Amino acid sequence: MSVMDVLRPALININGRIYRRNTVKEEHYEEEEDFSFIETPEREELLDDETCDSYNIEQTEKGYRCVFDVPSALYKYIIGKKGETRRRLEFDTKTSISIPKQGVEGQIVITGSQKSAVSSAVTRVELLVESFRKKQPFTHFLSFPLNDPKIQEGFLRFKDEVLLQCSQDYGVEESIFQNPAKLHLTIGTLTLLNDMEVQKACAYLQECGSFIRDIAEGKPLLLEVTGIEYMNDDPAMVDVLYAKVNVKGGSDRLQTIADRLVEHFASSGLMVREWDRVKLHGTVMNTLFRKDSAVKGTGGAGRLTTTEREAFDARNILKKYGAYSFGQFELNTVQLSQRYSTDCTGYYTAAGSISFS
């Protein structure tokens, strides 16, 4: 079998209809999926049956037309290698698909003589976009900042004591500690690929203001950051150590706000809901922060992949500091934070925020 042979045939269900997809691998290229669909013998009936409810298809003097936004980062998946995917889509649906130049934000324009053909093409482009969007790294996240000065001070004491008492333990060293200015609770992650999508997410966050203030009773929540826990099953091989955060007095209001936020954003399609409840945890040590020895000489910290992570032995840390108190503070905001960014306070740059009071 040559490298151009089909490696993984599969069936995909779109709006109740079944299509066949092929995955092709070319030498010297990463695996790339071809979502130009191989039609069944009932092709004409299938085209008539495919409907697009997401976008308006308007009638023109020459036929029908649909215009919709797609982030420029996803154009290449609609075009395909050497334009093959777009040509197959145009041939199968008897439409014309106009795409802006790479890197230029704009609108996809699909035209055709039949409304059903335009609808079919739109549906297929939608599937391409959603499929490859899921493969993009997240760009933003909803967060509760934990970088109050009192918590930062408590964290730095914790760091100093751990390095003094436990630095002889396997994998424990300074670079795997969180930046104190970026201590936070992650509520959920988002992949926002252009300014329009960021603005849309900000608008959805503003819609949450009413229920957030209702749950918080219009005032900040007094939180206590006490105790540490690890993510995996073996305390001798830990990748993430986190601080436990609770509302003082045992209220579940913080958890309720986090769960409602995820529910709201998931319903909009901007966030994927992974769990029934958000796991609220403030990371204090993470092996993804570990400096790559290959770049230490340049003064930078290399980002390791998950397969390269070197775990650490947290048994002594848990034994000595399992009930450690980082302090208390009043939380009064939830932010839409930009990944890999820093504002003037040292925290992540906020694209948007909502206060509790």
From TrEMBL:
Domain of life: Eukaryota
Keywords noted in UniProt: RNA-binding
PANTHER family attached to this UniProt entry: ACTIVATING SIGNAL COINTEGRATOR 1 COMPLEX SUBUNIT 1
Gene assigned in the entry: ASCC1
GO biological process terms, semicolon-separated: DNA alkylation repair; regulation of DNA-templated transcription
Protein name: Activating signal cointegrator 1 complex subunit 1
One Gene Ontology MF term: RNA binding
Pfam families cross-referenced by the UniProt entry: AKAP7_NLS, KH_1
Domain K Homology as annotated: residue spans: 62-130
InterPro entries for the chain: AKAP7-like_phosphoesterase, ASCC1, KH-I_ASCC1, KH_dom, KH_dom_type_1, KH_dom_type_1_sf
Gene Ontology cellular-component annotations: nucleus
CDD domains associated with the record: KH-I_ASCC1
